[in-house]
Amino acid sequence: MNGYGLRLFLGFAGLVLVMLVVSAAVFFSLFGGYRDNIDRSELRTAGNALSVEIVRELRRAEVLNREQLVTIIREQAEHAELIVILTDGAGRVLTGFEPAQGLKDDNVGLTYTAVVQKAGLTEWLDTKLYIGEDWRLTLVRVLVPPANPGRPDGGILMAVTFGDPHRFGSLDELIRRLIVSGLAGLAAAVVIAMLLSRQLLRPLEALTAVVRRFGPDRYDMRAAETGPAQVRELAAVFNAMADRVADNERAMRGFIADVSHELRTPLTSIRGFVEALRDGTVTDPQRQASSLEVVHEETRRMLRMIEQLLDLSRLEAGQYRLQLSRIELDELFGYGEAMFGGRAEEQGIALRFEPAADAPVIEADYDRLVQVLSNLLDNALRHTVSGSITVSARGLEEGLEIRVADTGEGIAPDDLNRLFDRFWQPASRTGPGAGLGLAISREIVRAHGGRVAAESSLGVGTTIIVWLPSTPPSSASRAE
């Protein structure tokens, strides 16, 4: 176990240890005071009973010497399992009290005056005395006031504590038991922490193994979405990323294959004509001029294709920044009519522009919209033999919808979802083109925050639908 697993295990164990320490500290704090209160209460009850008995015996005796007093007190103390210490008003232990052996300096450290000031003549004063090797809870009170108030040391003080030192060892025993139980609990917590950390780490380790193996020729690797919710979410995100990477890899390989295929044809043609010119196979000046014209046109076609590819790559990568301006439909449609009206007339196709009266004014990149409209009209003219092409516009969903509808050959339903793929063209293609115009148009529309779709029926025609929002994207810049 290392790395994240070790930190997870130590975190679990540390948390349990902190909880045990805090719980023990709070318990001992509360229980210690509670136990002291119980001891003081028991000691006060026993001391009161003993003091009453001692005073009764003192009053009962007509003549009572010190030996008799010591004997009475010792008998009563042994019966109550107490240690009773009698002192004079200055706190000095009176002679004859063997139970007081070990009392520090044979003095309780309290005077008659101090006891009276703190507890009065009839109440007990809480204190502690060092007896033997232990500090013990002790109660001190005035037993007999001095006969002469001027000499307070003539009075008698009584100090009472338990005779059995183990009465005060119950907390120590409890502490030992709690320590043992705490260590047992900590050991159990460590085992549970190990099991939990292993349970959490197992799906992470499996995900790590999949990530390590994911790469070239292993783009099919996917992680099992098991374990805690966060790990399942991480595995799902990785799988989604892996799907995108695999799709991009397939697209890149397809792109390279498509580019190679599209460039091979003009390059082969150019190579053939150039070799013929170089070897002197073509000697006729007219054929030489014709060959050079073919080489020239094929070269221009390759350059257009490369420019389109670069344009498409910049759009897909989001590296092109739109230059926004107010778009007037009359101006946009006027450009389309000027550029393609003559060509449509030559082909015998009716080209109509029908902007709706309520069509909204939007902000967009004019040059890019011209490019989209040109691509759509060029595509429609190339695939329409007769009939008409209608360009219409209307307001829809807080935006502008532009439709380019033709009465051409149409597209099969199975091919419709590939219409905007780069390099794809229907089998019935006519005229030049690399199949990049619609792909570029889609990316331009997406860059504006819009969408593009197609509707088509074989033998009926095709309609390209472009929707552009009224609100321009935040990444665009406004043209001055």
Which tags fit this structure?
54% helix, alpha+beta, Helix Hairpins, Heat Shock Protein 90, Beta-Lactamase, five-stranded mixed sheet, 480 residues
Q: Can you put this structure into words, describing what you see?
A:
The protein contains ten helices and twelve strands. It has 480 residues and is of the alpha+beta class. It has three domains: 169 residues, Beta-Lactamase (2-Layer Sandwich); 88 residues, Signal transduction histidine kinase, dimerisation/phosphotransfer (DHp) domain (Helix Hairpins), CATH 1.10.287; 156 residues, Histidine kinase-like ATPase, C-terminal domain (Heat Shock Protein 90), CATH 3.30.565.10. The strands form three sheets. It has a five-stranded mixed sheet, covered by helices on one side. The longest helix has 57 residues. The two termini are 63 Å apart.
Q: Mean of residue pLDDT?
A: 77
Task: List the uncertain runs.
Answer: 429-434
Note the total helix count: 10
SS strand fraction = 15-25%
| CATH architectural label of the largest domain | 2-Layer Sandwich
Question: Gyration radius, to the nearest Å?
Answer: 52 Å
Cα(first) to Cα(last) distance is: 63 Å
Derived from helix and strand composition plus strand pairing, the structural class reads alpha+beta
CATH domain class name of the largest domain: Alpha Beta
What is the global morphology? rod-shaped
Q: What's the total count of β strands?
A: 12
**Tally of separate domains:** 3
CATH fold name of the largest domain: Beta-Lactamase
Task: Give the SSE order as H and E letters.
Answer: HHEHEEEHHHEHEEHEEHHEEE
> Helix coverage percent of residues?
40-55%
Biggest sheet features? 5 strands, mixed
Strand order of the largest sheet: 6-8-9-11-10
